[in-house]
Amino acid sequence: MAIKLLIATSNAGKVVEIQHEFEAAGTAGGFEIVGLKDLPMKFADCVEDRPTFVGNATKKSRHYAALSGLLTLADDSGLCVDALNGDPGVYSARYAGVSGHAADAANNAKLLENMKAVPDDKRQAHFTCAMALSFPSADLAVMVNEVHGMLLREPRGTNGFGYDPLFYFPEFNKTTAELDMATKSRISHRGKALRRMIEWMQSRAAQLRASTTK
Known about the structure:
The chain has helices at residues 12-24, 53-68, 103-115, 181-187, 189-203, 205-212; strands at 3-7, 31-35, 71-81, 124-135, 138-151, 167-169, 174-175. It is built from 6 helices and 7 strands.
């Protein structure tokens, strides 16, 4: 029997990326992966008020595991820009104070405005992903990874979300949003953290299955 794994997000793009990694690892059949929008019930949002990515990811996985009764995987990811002293950081998703479908465009526009005076050789940035796995009754694991690049002055590409169209990899001459799914998963902060988490889950699959069927 597959273990139902809740991905604590309403972002369909993120669910697709995570599903892709489970398939690539050959473990998709062992887990029934669902996002918040796939569940019949609606849950109160988790207030992500911790000062760190790890804190927010852990709080979110605990929150949705307790409400859903499911094994839950949550991440808190963000962009940290050297020239902005690490901003937007944990506020990446709400940087411009806009929610919903317009948030990505608004966040990117604010970032470009704040970076307009920064020269091309000073536009270093990195993405961080903290990923946490929880049962309703216990925290299980946390994985953290980063990826480093540069910020462009205008967006490029459509294969991504968030700040992906601005985040540029010199070695590929492409933004994250221009990379194919396999390459993006291989080098991205979320992909690397997720692969470590999948490996951890694979090594404990029997225990996870036993705990979810009690």
